[in-house]
Every structure is written in C-alpha cells, then in structure tokens.
Specification:
The chain is 23% helix and 14% strand. It has seven helices and eight strands. Strands 5-4-3-2-1-6-7-8 form an eight-stranded mixed sheet.
C-alpha cells in the first residue's frame, strides 16, 4: 500500500455551482448533508489501524466550511493519527479571520483557497490562494461534455491516483477516484471493511494495475473518457500542488 492522500467528504453540499464542476449539472446526491457519527468513527478507526501519516483533506464535491464542526473533526483525527497532515481545500467564501484562526488552532496545516469569483483574501501564514484561471480543468471522466474529450494520448497515460489516494464519501463508500462525481465506482465501505481489505480487493487491484501501465481503456469506462494527467508520475499525488513543500 502506497497511500499518500486521503480525502473524506464531511458534508455533501457546496454553496457554488461553477460551470466547470459537476455540481453545476448534477442533482443533489441522495446522501446525508453532514457526515454521520458511525461513518466518522469508522473513518478515524480505519486511519488509526494503518497509522496513517499522509495528507488528509475534507472534500469531495462539497464546500467543507459549510460543516461548522470541521475543527472538532480535525482534532479528533489528529488525536488518533498525530502524524497525518490536515489540509483544507475551500472556495474561501465562508473563510473569515475568526474561522481561519480556529482552524489553525485545531491543527490545520494549510488552507488552500480557490477563489472562483476572483475575490482576494488577506495574506495569512498558512494559506495559499489560487484562482480559477490557475486550474487545469478535466472533463471529470467524460461527464463535463462542454470540456474537451479524451484523446488517444490522454487514455494512453499512466495514472497513479488510485494507487496513492483514498477517496471516501459521506456514507463511507470508497470510490475509485475523485473524478467520480456520480459515485458510480464503489470499491468498498469503511464501515464494514478495513482499508487493507478494500485496497486489496480484486476489482480495485485490477483497475490500479491497468492504470499503472497506461491502459485506461482496460480499467473502466470512466478512465477511458478521462483527461486527467495530474497523476502520471508515481509519488506525484503527494506533491502535485506547488505549495506542498511549504508544509512537508
């Protein structure tokens, strides 16, 4: 297991509908608005089982700052796995100075703002601001039909995202990739399976193997239609963002 990043969906809503995001075209998912205690406690237990020491973030297709208990979640995770590195990805709309201070006090190592509106934010020590023009857009496995379709070059690229990242939804489902906005490629569930059991399952292992040799067509339909090239190099999932050296 080469697990560098874990992303957990702590709430299922976003306050924006950006045109390049699936939130703009898909209905609200039929899941709880906030993560339930049984899922959260299972998630923390599973992290502790493997003594996780990588980056952990709190998003899927949601705005994490909508969850008013994010600070308590961060503290709880750090108590269980103190070597992990909490990083918040947010659109920044709800980030006040008071919220910034409380997040940092809770143990958040970095706050990454993507300012979709172009709004500026005051400089802060543990904060990075990027704008929509800085984003490398993907077609979300072919779901964003207004964005370019995958080329033969795209689908011949290796991908190590499922080799290095674990994406957990608000119901505890582990999906193949963060590109799976429709939650259609479920590899297992942390409420009744260990991370090792999910990770080593036949389907998960098969898909990872195909992606690692650059056979996206042999992986699944979503991968066949995907334009994401952010994970073509082993180990890049941990350092794909230019700001990561600031907190490593």
């Amino acid at each position: 297991m080469r697990l560098l990043n874990v992303e957990i969906e702590i709430n299922s809503r976003c306050n924006r509908k950006c045109s390049y995001c699936p939130v703009s075209i898909m209905p609200f998912p039929q899941v709880p608005r906030l993560i339930q205690e049984n899922v959260l406690s299972s998630f923390v237990f599973r992290l502790k089982e493997i003594d996780f020491d990588g980056r952990i973030s709190f998003h899927f297709y949601n705005e994490p700052l909508i969850h008013k208990g994010l600070e308590d979640i961060v503290r709880r995770i750090l108590q269980a796995v103190p070597k992990c590195r909490p990083v918040l990805f947010t659109n920044g709309d709800l980030l006040t100075q008071q919220r910034y201070d409380s997040l940092v006090d809770a143990g958040m190592q970095m706050i990454v703002i993507t300012s979709h509106s172009g709004k500026s934010h005051p400089p802060r020590p543990k904060q990075v601001v990027q704008f929509s023009d800085d984003l490398v857009l993907t077609n979300r496995g072919g779901k964003m039909v207004e964005l370019p379709k995958a080329t033969e070059l795209d689908i011949s690229q290796r991908c190590f995202a499922p080799t290095e990242m674990l994406i957990v939804t608000i119901t505890g489902d582990v999906v193949l990739c963060y590109e799976d906005a429709y939650r259609s490629h479920v590899m297992g569930n942390i409420c009744n399976q260990s991370i090792a059991e999910i990770w080593n399952s036949d389907d998960y292992s098969r898909i990872r193997g195909e992606l690692e040799i650059g056979n996206r067509k042999g992986a699944c339909e979503m991968c066949t239609n995907c334009t994401n090239r952010a994970h073509t190099t082993l180990g890049k999932s941990d350092r794909s963002e230019p700001f990561w050296d600031l907190i490593s």
